[in-house]
Specification:
elongated; alpha/beta; 5-stranded parallel sheet; binds shikimate-3-phosphate
């Protein structure tokens, strides 16, 4: 059974400790930090552990402390050392511990924040920025693999980070089991092949990956469907009426401009619906300016590239 802790992960300097403390005030949950637990256990600093006993010894302690935390803490905020998610067994423990929030940060931000800090043994080297870049690259997948929620922190103030974490936790709870459907109409399977100057160079599989990453980040179940056939799209919309779909994102392709049949199918389903267009349909041919499907949707997003799909998913998640 999953404990109700909030677990903050992220690279050194991502703000786990500071954001954790602030979050702890706001949501009135106690906070613990695995590095501090290690320091108390060993009665010396992390830097001294690295210097005297080496990194391997530290990594063993990290896993031990995490195992203890799983049986000990409930309803806490727990921030963990930047390297904790690297070990597969730690990732499993983190997930058991609670909802994992990844504070994602860019190398340059880390460098600016930590350039005068000597408490991080791994960054005491000739070229810390390069080291940060390499470590972040090597750890990217590990962080993302165990994250339930990802917050990009570079452009945000501390207050904003905490607010965003709070909102995402709330949204995650509300939308955890949300079942969404993303439908792509004709020629969208030709992304990356067709009119690259209009639709970009990324292919359809890239879009599917973006959507699945979003599903992971938000905890939603997102099914994707693509067809070049009007009737097949209508069948899939009708199926959504019966299969528990709670929101539809649809890019009807050129059918947008004349398919009253797709419009009628959409109108018969009352879940939130967002129409998406990759290009700016208002700045292209006259016939593209008209959408017969948008009036039966709750929102239309265009000209945002592939990000429009992700914005549409967020719109549905926050729709009430
Ligand atoms: C480390 C990050 C540090 C600390 C140790 C190793 C890492 O924690 O655990 O220096 O491997 O990234 P913070 O992320 O809290 O600085």
């Amino acid at each position: 059974m999953k404990k109700k802790n909030i677990v903050l992960i992220g690279f050194m300097g991502s703000g786990k400790t500071t954001a954790g403390i602030r979050l702890s005030y706001r949501i009135r949950k106690p906070i613990e930090d695995t590095d501090k637990l290690i320091e108390r256990k060993e009665k010396c600093t992390i830097r001294e552990i690295f210097d005297n006993k080496g990194e391997e010894y530290f990594r063993k302690l990290e896993t031990e402390v995490l195992q203890e935390a799983v049986s000990k803490y409930k309803n806490y905020i727990i921030s963990v050392g930047g390297g904790t998610p690297v070990r597969q067994e730690n990732r499993e423990l983190l997930k058991q511990l609670g909802t994992v929030v990844y504070l994602r940060v860019k190398p340059e931000t880390v460098y600016e924040r930590l350039k005068k800090d000597t408490s991080r043994p791994l960054l005491q080297c000739e070229d810390p920025l390069e080291k940060i870049r390499q470590m972040l690259k090597a750890r990217k997948e590990a962080y993302e693999a165990c994250a339930d929620i990802i917050v990009d922190v570079d452009e945000l103030s501390l207050q904003e980070v905490v607010t965003k974490v709070q909102q995402e936790l709330e949204g995650n709870r509300k939308a955890k089991s949300m079942k969404l459907l993303v439908i792509n109409g004709p020629n969208l399977n030709f992304l990356g092949i067709r009119e690259k100057s209009v639709y970009g160079t990324q292919d359809y599989n890239y879009l599917l990956k973006l959507i699945q990453d979003k599903a992971k980040e938000t905890g939603c179940e997102i099914e994707t469907y693509q067809s070049n056939h009007e009737g097949a799209i209508i069948d899939r919309i009708q199926e959504a009426y019966f299969d528990g779909t709670q929101g539809i994102v649809i890019n009807p392709g050129a059918y947008t401009h004349y398919s009253y049949a797709i419009r009628d199918a959409l109108a018969s389903i009352t879940v939130p619906k967002v129409e998406v267009h990759i290009s700016n349909i208002q700045e292209r041919e006259e016939f593209r300016k008209i959408s017969v499907t948008a009036p039966v949707c709750d929102k239309q997003i265009f000209g945002q590239g592939l990000d429009g799909y992700l914005q549409a998913i967020d719109f549905i998640r926050n729709f009430s």
